[in-house]
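Section 5: illustrative case.
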Protein backbone atom coordinates (compact mmCIF):
# COMPACT_ATOMS: atom_id res chain seq x y z
CA UNK A 1 0.00 0.00 0.00
CA UNK A 2 1.65 3.17 -1.14
CA UNK A 3 1.71 5.91 1.43
CA UNK A 4 3.69 9.02 2.28
CA UNK A 5 7.17 8.51 3.88
CA UNK A 6 7.13 5.48 3.28
CA UNK A 7 -7.55 12.42 -6.68
CA UNK A 8 -17.59 24.02 -10.60
CA UNK A 9 -16.00 26.58 -12.25
CA UNK A 10 -14.23 25.59 -15.42
CA UNK A 11 -10.63 26.30 -16.30
CA UNK A 12 -11.22 30.01 -16.87
CA UNK A 13 -10.28 30.58 -13.22
CA UNK A 14 -6.77 30.80 -14.66
CA UNK A 15 -6.34 34.53 -15.13
CA UNK A 16 -3.81 34.25 -17.92
CA UNK A 17 -3.47 31.80 -20.80
CA UNK A 18 -1.39 28.73 -20.13
CA UNK A 19 2.26 29.27 -20.87
CA UNK A 20 4.00 27.55 -23.72
CA UNK A 21 5.73 24.36 -22.62
CA UNK A 22 9.03 25.18 -21.00
CA UNK A 23 8.45 28.97 -21.04
CA UNK A 24 7.82 29.19 -17.28
CA UNK A 25 10.45 27.71 -14.97
CA UNK A 26 9.30 24.95 -12.64
CA UNK A 27 7.72 26.46 -9.54
CA UNK A 28 7.29 29.97 -11.05
CA UNK A 29 3.60 29.96 -11.88
CA UNK A 30 2.00 33.06 -13.36
CA UNK A 31 -0.76 34.53 -11.15
CA UNK A 32 -4.14 32.83 -11.12
CA UNK A 33 -7.48 33.67 -9.60
CA UNK A 34 -8.27 32.00 -6.26
CA UNK A 35 -9.88 28.59 -6.45
CA UNK A 36 -13.34 28.24 -4.88
CA UNK A 37 -13.25 28.06 -1.11
CA UNK A 38 -13.46 24.56 0.39
CA UNK A 39 -15.64 24.13 3.47
CA UNK A 40 -13.71 22.05 5.99
CA UNK A 41 -15.84 22.86 8.98
CA UNK A 42 -16.63 19.92 11.23
CA UNK A 43 -20.24 19.94 10.04
CA UNK A 44 -19.26 19.88 6.36
CA UNK A 45 -16.74 17.10 6.90
CA UNK A 46 -19.33 15.07 8.80
CA UNK A 47 -21.71 15.35 5.85
CA UNK A 48 -19.09 14.05 3.43
CA UNK A 49 -18.19 11.26 5.83
CA UNK A 50 -21.85 10.21 5.99
CA UNK A 51 -21.98 10.06 2.19
CA UNK A 52 -18.94 7.78 2.15
CA UNK A 53 -20.37 5.55 4.86
CA UNK A 54 -23.49 4.98 2.74
CA UNK A 55 -21.45 3.12 0.08
CA UNK A 56 -18.54 1.77 2.14
CA UNK A 57 -20.00 -1.70 2.62
CA UNK A 58 -20.93 -1.97 -1.07
CA UNK A 59 -17.36 -1.33 -2.18
CA UNK A 60 -15.83 -3.41 0.59
CA UNK A 61 -17.83 -6.40 -0.64
CA UNK A 62 -17.16 -5.89 -4.35
CA UNK A 63 -13.57 -4.66 -4.15
CA UNK A 64 -14.36 -2.31 -7.03
CA UNK A 65 -12.95 1.19 -7.29
CA UNK A 66 -15.08 3.47 -5.04
CA UNK A 67 -16.13 5.99 -7.65
CA UNK A 68 -19.22 7.17 -5.73
CA UNK A 69 -17.17 7.99 -2.68
CA UNK A 70 -14.41 9.67 -4.69
CA UNK A 71 -17.02 11.76 -6.49
CA UNK A 72 -18.46 12.87 -3.15
CA UNK A 73 -15.02 13.97 -1.96
CA UNK A 74 -14.46 15.80 -5.25
CA UNK A 75 -17.86 17.51 -5.08
CA UNK A 76 -16.92 18.80 -1.63
CA UNK A 77 -13.69 20.25 -3.06
CA UNK A 78 -11.53 18.18 -0.73
CA UNK A 79 -9.36 16.76 -3.52
CA UNK A 80 -8.10 20.33 -4.14
CA UNK A 81 -6.74 20.74 -0.62
CA UNK A 82 -3.03 21.48 -0.51
CA UNK A 83 -2.84 23.24 -3.89
CA UNK A 84 -0.39 26.10 -3.51
CA UNK A 85 -1.43 29.76 -3.50
CA UNK A 86 0.58 30.24 -6.71
CA UNK A 87 -2.10 28.16 -8.40
CA UNK A 88 -5.06 29.65 -6.57
CA UNK A 89 -5.17 27.30 -3.60
CA UNK A 90 -4.25 27.65 0.03
CA UNK A 91 -2.01 25.90 2.52
CA UNK A 92 -3.33 22.80 4.29
CA UNK A 93 -2.50 23.12 7.97
CA UNK A 94 -1.41 19.95 9.81
CA UNK A 95 -4.33 20.13 12.25
CA UNK A 96 -6.76 20.47 9.35
CA UNK A 97 -5.18 17.47 7.64
CA UNK A 98 -5.99 15.42 10.74
CA UNK A 99 -9.58 16.68 10.90
CA UNK A 100 -10.22 16.07 7.22
CA UNK A 101 -8.87 12.54 7.03
CA UNK A 102 -10.31 11.47 10.37
CA UNK A 103 -13.74 12.43 9.04
CA UNK A 104 -13.20 10.66 5.71
CA UNK A 105 -11.74 7.61 7.42
CA UNK A 106 -14.82 7.35 9.61
CA UNK A 107 -16.92 7.20 6.45
CA UNK A 108 -14.81 4.97 4.20
CA UNK A 109 -11.08 4.53 4.81
CA UNK A 110 -10.46 3.30 1.27
CA UNK A 111 -11.77 6.58 -0.12
CA UNK A 112 -9.92 8.47 2.60
CA UNK A 113 -6.62 6.88 1.61
CA UNK A 114 -7.21 7.49 -2.10
CA UNK A 115 -8.02 11.12 -1.30
CA UNK A 116 -5.02 11.54 1.00
CA UNK A 117 -2.62 10.34 -1.67
CA UNK A 118 -3.87 13.05 -4.04
CA UNK A 119 -3.85 15.82 -1.46
CA UNK A 120 -0.35 14.93 -0.31
CA UNK A 121 0.93 15.26 -3.88
CA UNK A 122 -0.46 18.78 -3.99
CA UNK A 123 1.29 19.50 -0.69
CA UNK A 124 4.59 18.17 -2.04
CA UNK A 125 4.26 20.27 -5.18
CA UNK A 126 3.65 23.34 -3.02
CA UNK A 127 6.73 22.62 -0.86
CA UNK A 128 9.16 21.66 -3.61
CA UNK A 129 7.74 22.13 -7.13
CA UNK A 130 8.68 19.42 -9.56
CA UNK A 131 5.82 19.32 -12.07
CA UNK A 132 6.18 21.09 -15.43
CA UNK A 133 4.26 24.32 -14.85
CA UNK A 134 1.88 23.97 -17.78
CA UNK A 135 1.03 20.36 -16.87
CA UNK A 136 0.32 21.21 -13.24
CA UNK A 137 -1.90 24.09 -14.37
CA UNK A 138 -3.90 21.53 -16.31
CA UNK A 139 -4.17 19.32 -13.23
CA UNK A 140 -5.52 22.24 -11.20
CA UNK A 141 -7.95 23.34 -13.89
CA UNK A 142 -9.23 19.81 -14.51
CA UNK A 143 -9.67 19.32 -10.76
CA UNK A 144 -12.50 21.81 -10.82
CA UNK A 145 -14.54 19.66 -13.20
CA UNK A 146 -13.74 16.08 -12.23
CA UNK A 147 -11.75 14.01 -9.74
CA UNK A 148 -8.09 14.18 -10.72
CA UNK A 149 -6.36 11.51 -8.68
CA UNK A 150 -2.61 11.45 -8.13
CA UNK A 151 -0.31 9.10 -6.27
CA UNK A 152 3.35 8.35 -5.82
CA UNK A 153 3.84 4.76 -7.02
CA UNK A 154 6.89 3.61 -5.07
CA UNK A 155 6.78 0.06 -3.69
CA UNK A 156 7.99 -2.93 -5.71
CA UNK A 157 7.52 -6.69 -5.33
CA UNK A 158 11.24 -7.27 -4.72
CA UNK A 159 12.22 -3.97 -3.09
CA UNK A 160 9.27 -3.67 -0.75
CA UNK A 161 8.69 -0.23 0.77
CA UNK A 162 11.27 2.38 -0.33
CA UNK A 163 11.12 3.86 3.17
CA UNK A 164 13.38 0.98 4.23
CA UNK A 165 16.02 1.97 1.70
CA UNK A 166 17.31 0.59 -1.58
CA UNK A 167 17.12 1.66 -5.20
CA UNK A 168 14.07 0.85 -7.33
CA UNK A 169 14.32 -1.76 -10.04
CA UNK A 170 12.06 0.50 -12.11
CA UNK A 171 14.38 2.24 -14.56
CA UNK A 172 14.13 5.44 -16.54
CA UNK A 173 16.28 5.99 -19.62
CA UNK A 174 16.97 9.13 -21.62
CA UNK A 175 15.80 9.17 -25.24
CA UNK A 176 16.09 11.71 -28.01
CA UNK A 177 12.66 13.11 -27.14
CA UNK A 178 12.40 12.58 -23.39
CA UNK A 179 12.41 9.50 -21.17
CA UNK A 180 11.25 5.89 -21.33
CA UNK A 181 10.20 3.96 -18.21
CA UNK A 182 10.20 0.21 -17.52
CA UNK A 183 9.32 -1.46 -14.26
CA UNK A 184 6.91 -3.37 -12.05
CA UNK A 185 5.31 -1.62 -9.06
CA UNK A 186 3.26 -3.12 -6.26
CA UNK A 187 0.75 -1.75 -3.75
CA UNK A 188 -0.19 1.19 -6.00
CA UNK A 189 -3.12 2.73 -4.15
CA UNK A 190 -5.75 4.37 -6.41
CA UNK A 191 -4.34 2.51 -9.42
CA UNK A 192 -7.58 2.12 -11.37
CA UNK A 193 -8.68 5.71 -10.77
CA UNK A 194 -5.45 7.61 -11.26
CA UNK A 195 -5.12 10.48 -13.69
CA UNK A 196 -1.35 10.61 -13.18
CA UNK A 197 1.14 8.05 -11.88
CA UNK A 198 4.17 9.52 -10.11
CA UNK A 199 6.52 6.58 -10.50
CA UNK A 200 9.63 6.22 -8.33
CA UNK A 201 12.42 5.34 -10.75
CA UNK A 202 16.17 5.51 -11.15
CA UNK A 203 18.58 5.89 -14.03
CA UNK A 204 21.34 3.33 -14.47
CA UNK A 205 24.24 5.72 -13.83
CA UNK A 206 26.96 5.04 -11.26
CA UNK A 207 25.32 7.69 -9.07
CA UNK A 208 21.81 7.25 -10.44
CA UNK A 209 19.30 10.01 -10.75
CA UNK A 210 16.37 9.13 -8.52
CA UNK A 211 12.91 10.63 -8.39
CA UNK A 212 9.28 10.52 -9.44
CA UNK A 213 8.51 10.54 -13.13
CA UNK A 214 5.10 11.97 -14.00
CA UNK A 215 3.17 9.58 -16.25
CA UNK A 216 -0.35 10.39 -17.51
CA UNK A 217 -2.61 7.42 -16.82
CA UNK A 218 -3.64 7.12 -20.48
CA UNK A 219 -0.04 6.64 -21.65
CA UNK A 220 0.56 3.51 -23.77
CA UNK A 221 2.42 0.77 -21.94
CA UNK A 222 0.65 0.89 -18.56
CA UNK A 223 -0.92 -2.35 -17.34
CA UNK A 224 -2.83 -2.59 -14.08
CA UNK A 225 -2.79 -6.11 -12.62
CA UNK A 226 -5.60 -6.68 -10.13
CA UNK A 227 -3.58 -8.26 -7.34
CA UNK A 228 -5.25 -6.49 -4.39
CA UNK A 229 -7.29 -9.08 -2.47
CA UNK A 230 -6.72 -7.81 1.00
CA UNK A 231 -7.84 -8.13 4.61
CA UNK A 232 -8.86 -4.47 4.80
CA UNK A 233 -9.23 -1.32 2.67
CA UNK A 234 -10.51 -3.61 -0.03
CA UNK A 235 -11.73 -0.77 -2.25
CA UNK A 236 -8.45 1.17 -2.25
CA UNK A 237 -7.42 -0.30 -5.64
CA UNK A 238 -3.91 -1.01 -4.35
CA UNK A 239 -2.98 -3.21 -7.29
CA UNK A 240 0.28 -3.90 -9.14
CA UNK A 241 1.19 -1.76 -12.13
CA UNK A 242 3.55 -2.76 -14.94
CA UNK A 243 5.21 -0.08 -17.08
CA UNK A 244 6.56 -1.25 -20.43
CA UNK A 245 8.44 1.25 -22.60
CA UNK A 246 6.29 4.12 -21.34
CA UNK A 247 7.43 7.36 -22.97
CA UNK A 248 7.19 10.75 -21.26
CA UNK A 249 8.44 14.25 -22.14
CA UNK A 250 11.82 15.38 -20.83
CA UNK A 251 10.23 17.84 -18.38
CA UNK A 252 8.32 15.05 -16.58
CA UNK A 253 11.37 13.80 -14.67
CA UNK A 254 13.61 15.88 -12.40
CA UNK A 255 15.66 13.23 -10.69
CA UNK A 256 18.38 14.03 -8.21
CA UNK A 257 21.52 11.98 -7.58
CA UNK A 258 20.82 9.19 -5.12
CA UNK A 259 23.66 10.49 -2.97
CA UNK A 260 21.80 13.81 -2.57
CA UNK A 261 18.46 12.38 -1.49
CA UNK A 262 17.18 13.56 1.89
CA UNK A 263 13.86 12.95 3.65
CA UNK A 264 11.44 15.87 3.80
CA UNK A 265 10.73 16.04 7.52
CA UNK A 266 8.31 18.91 7.04
CA UNK A 267 6.03 16.76 4.90
CA UNK A 268 5.30 14.63 7.96
CA UNK A 269 3.34 17.62 9.26
CA UNK A 270 0.39 16.88 6.98
CA UNK A 271 1.34 13.27 6.28
CA UNK A 272 0.13 12.39 9.78
CA UNK A 273 -3.35 12.72 8.29
CA UNK A 274 -2.82 9.33 6.63
CA UNK A 275 -2.49 7.85 10.11
CA UNK A 276 -5.36 9.91 11.48
CA UNK A 277 -7.80 8.36 9.01
CA UNK A 278 -7.60 5.22 11.16
CA UNK A 279 -8.73 7.23 14.17
CA UNK A 280 -11.81 7.80 12.03
CA UNK A 281 -12.18 4.04 11.52
CA UNK A 282 -12.01 3.53 15.28
CA UNK A 283 -14.56 6.31 15.88
CA UNK A 284 -16.92 4.53 13.48
CA UNK A 285 -16.40 1.31 15.43
CA UNK A 286 -17.14 3.15 18.66
CA UNK A 287 -20.33 4.55 17.15
CA UNK A 288 -21.57 1.07 16.34
CA UNK A 289 -20.58 -0.22 19.78
CA UNK A 290 -22.52 2.54 21.55
CA UNK A 291 -25.61 1.99 19.41
CA UNK A 292 -25.45 -1.77 19.91
CA UNK A 293 -25.04 -1.39 23.67
CA UNK A 294 -28.08 0.84 23.91
CA UNK A 295 -30.25 -1.37 21.72
CA UNK A 296 -29.23 -4.80 23.02
CA UNK A 297 -31.65 -5.97 25.73
CA UNK A 298 -30.97 -9.59 26.80
CA UNK A 299 -34.03 -11.32 28.21
CA UNK A 300 -32.02 -12.35 31.25
CA UNK A 301 -31.20 -8.70 31.97
CA UNK A 302 -34.39 -6.95 30.94
CA UNK A 303 -32.63 -3.68 30.16
CA UNK A 304 -29.99 -2.43 27.69
CA UNK A 305 -26.49 -3.72 28.32
CA UNK A 306 -25.40 -0.07 28.23
CA UNK A 307 -26.80 0.23 31.76
CA UNK A 308 -24.32 -2.31 33.18
CA UNK A 309 -21.06 -1.24 34.77
CA UNK A 310 -19.11 -3.73 32.67
CA UNK A 311 -20.22 -2.17 29.37
CA UNK A 312 -19.85 1.33 30.79
CA UNK A 313 -16.26 0.56 31.76
CA UNK A 314 -15.54 -0.86 28.31
CA UNK A 315 -17.06 2.24 26.71
CA UNK A 316 -14.74 4.31 28.87
CA UNK A 317 -11.72 2.26 27.79
CA UNK A 318 -12.59 2.75 24.11
CA UNK A 319 -12.99 6.48 24.61
CA UNK A 320 -9.71 6.65 26.52
CA UNK A 321 -7.84 5.00 23.64
CA UNK A 322 -9.36 7.35 21.10
CA UNK A 323 -8.70 10.46 23.18
CA UNK A 324 -5.08 9.35 23.50
CA UNK A 325 -4.79 8.88 19.73
CA UNK A 326 -6.35 12.25 18.99
CA UNK A 327 -4.24 14.08 21.56
CA UNK A 328 -1.06 12.59 20.11
CA UNK A 329 -2.06 13.44 16.54
CA UNK A 330 -3.17 16.99 17.25
CA UNK A 331 -0.32 17.58 19.70
CA UNK A 332 2.31 16.74 17.09
CA UNK A 333 0.42 18.71 14.43
CA UNK A 334 0.38 21.79 16.64
CA UNK A 335 4.11 21.42 17.27
CA UNK A 336 4.64 21.60 13.51
CA UNK A 337 2.42 24.66 13.24
CA UNK A 338 4.34 26.37 16.04
CA UNK A 339 7.69 25.48 14.50
CA UNK A 340 8.76 23.42 17.51
CA UNK A 341 12.20 21.86 16.89
CA UNK A 342 11.16 18.40 18.10
CA UNK A 343 8.07 18.13 15.90
CA UNK A 344 9.65 15.84 13.30
CA UNK A 345 11.13 13.56 15.97
CA UNK A 346 7.79 13.32 17.77
CA UNK A 347 5.96 12.57 14.51
CA UNK A 348 7.98 9.38 14.00
CA UNK A 349 6.73 7.91 17.28
CA UNK A 350 3.25 9.38 16.82
CA UNK A 351 2.48 6.88 14.06
CA UNK A 352 2.88 3.63 16.08
CA UNK A 353 1.29 5.19 19.17
CA UNK A 354 -1.81 6.24 17.21
CA UNK A 355 -1.91 2.85 15.51
CA UNK A 356 -1.79 0.99 18.83
CA UNK A 357 -4.57 3.10 20.31
CA UNK A 358 -6.89 2.85 17.29
CA UNK A 359 -6.45 -0.91 16.98
CA UNK A 360 -6.94 -1.43 20.72
CA UNK A 361 -10.14 0.62 20.67
CA UNK A 362 -11.68 -1.49 17.90
CA UNK A 363 -10.50 -4.79 19.33
CA UNK A 364 -11.97 -3.83 22.71
CA UNK A 365 -15.36 -3.18 21.12
CA UNK A 366 -15.30 -6.49 19.26
CA UNK A 367 -14.28 -8.47 22.35
CA UNK A 368 -17.12 -6.95 24.38
CA UNK A 369 -19.83 -7.59 21.79
CA UNK A 370 -18.79 -11.13 20.86
CA UNK A 371 -20.20 -12.85 17.79
CA UNK A 372 -22.21 -9.85 16.52
CA UNK A 373 -18.92 -7.96 16.30
CA UNK A 374 -17.54 -10.54 13.86
CA UNK A 375 -20.69 -10.85 11.77
CA UNK A 376 -20.43 -9.40 8.28
CA UNK A 377 -23.88 -7.83 8.37
CA UNK A 378 -22.57 -5.50 11.08
CA UNK A 379 -19.99 -2.83 10.17
CA UNK A 380 -17.80 -3.55 13.20
CA UNK A 381 -16.30 -6.56 11.42
CA UNK A 382 -15.26 -4.29 8.53
CA UNK A 383 -13.85 -1.68 10.91
CA UNK A 384 -11.77 -4.38 12.61
CA UNK A 385 -10.26 -5.40 9.28
CA UNK A 386 -9.70 -1.84 8.08
CA UNK A 387 -8.06 -0.51 11.23
CA UNK A 388 -5.29 -3.12 11.08
CA UNK A 389 -4.11 -1.64 7.78
CA UNK A 390 -2.63 1.28 9.73
CA UNK A 391 0.36 -0.89 10.61
CA UNK A 392 1.71 -1.10 7.06
CA UNK A 393 2.11 2.64 6.54
CA UNK A 394 5.59 4.03 7.09
CA UNK A 395 7.19 4.47 9.45
CA UNK A 396 6.33 0.95 10.54
CA UNK A 397 6.59 0.29 14.26
CA UNK A 398 9.96 -1.45 14.30
CA UNK A 399 11.53 1.33 12.25
CA UNK A 400 10.02 4.09 14.38
CA UNK A 401 11.18 2.46 17.61
CA UNK A 402 14.66 1.86 16.23
CA UNK A 403 15.03 5.50 15.18
CA UNK A 404 13.76 6.75 18.53
CA UNK A 405 15.89 4.32 20.50
CA UNK A 406 19.08 5.20 18.66
CA UNK A 407 18.41 8.89 19.16
CA UNK A 408 17.85 8.52 22.92
CA UNK A 409 20.90 6.33 23.40
CA UNK A 410 23.13 8.56 21.30
CA UNK A 411 22.06 11.63 23.26
CA UNK A 412 23.11 9.98 26.53
CA UNK A 413 26.36 8.43 25.25
CA UNK A 414 29.53 9.85 26.82
CA UNK A 415 31.54 12.14 24.60
CA UNK A 416 34.54 10.55 22.92
CA UNK A 417 37.75 11.20 24.80
CA UNK A 418 39.91 13.88 23.27
CA UNK A 419 43.18 12.56 21.77
CA UNK A 420 46.19 12.94 23.98
CA UNK A 421 48.52 15.84 23.20
CA UNK A 422 51.60 14.80 21.28
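Designed sequence:
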Amino acid sequence: MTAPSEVTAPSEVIAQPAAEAGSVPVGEAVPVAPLPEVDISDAALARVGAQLAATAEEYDRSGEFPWKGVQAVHDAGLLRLGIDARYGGRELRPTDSIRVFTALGKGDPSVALVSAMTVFQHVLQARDPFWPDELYRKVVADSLDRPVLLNAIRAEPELGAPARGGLPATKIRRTADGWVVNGHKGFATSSEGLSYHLVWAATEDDDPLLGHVIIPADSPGIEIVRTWDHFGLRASSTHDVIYTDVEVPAANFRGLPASAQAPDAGFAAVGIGATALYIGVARAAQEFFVRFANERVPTSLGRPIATTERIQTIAGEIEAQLVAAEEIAFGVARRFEEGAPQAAERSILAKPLIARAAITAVQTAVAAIGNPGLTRRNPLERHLRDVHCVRVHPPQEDTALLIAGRRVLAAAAPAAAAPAAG
